[in-house]
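Quick one: structure for this chain?
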Amino acid sequence: MEIQLRELIEQIKKDGVQAAEAEAAVVLENAKAQAEKIVADAKAQAEKIVADAKSESERMTKSGEDALRQAGRNVLISFRESVARELMAIVGESVNAVYSSEALAELIANVVENMAGKTGDVEVVLNGEDLKKLEKTLLSALKEKMLTGVTLKANDNFDGGFRIAVDNGNVYYDYSAEAVVEMLSNYLSPRVAQLLKEA
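Got it. Here's what it folds into:
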């Protein structure tokens, strides 16, 4: 009986050890699976954090680049406007210098001469001050070029320069200081813009 008892104890020990080993294997397997899940979750979370940080970095970089582009455009627009203002001032000074000199009489005579015979009678309209100042010189220049049918009139609605009226005053050619400055500035501004682009 002692042998049977011993065998029974051995069998119980053996069964207990196997059961414990099986249970330990299950616990170990569960722990291993849980550890792998924790590692996988942590890795996924780390990858998401890195991806979010990269996305935010790219967004910030793009935002910064856009801001730099806009600032560059603003500087260029401001520079162009400044150059255009300076050109308007320079052109205005040059036109006013010509229009305030005796050269204005010669200029008017040349314009009238080019129009003579094409338009009939011609009216030259100047502001009152310029008419007083230039009347003798202008009449002399017109007489010298043998131009007839020219009438001089005063009109103080513009500062400097002159206007040529034809067709009994129905058509005007505007050579006032303002009109000439605007015309020259419109020509110069695109040219300056082109030069800025080429630079």
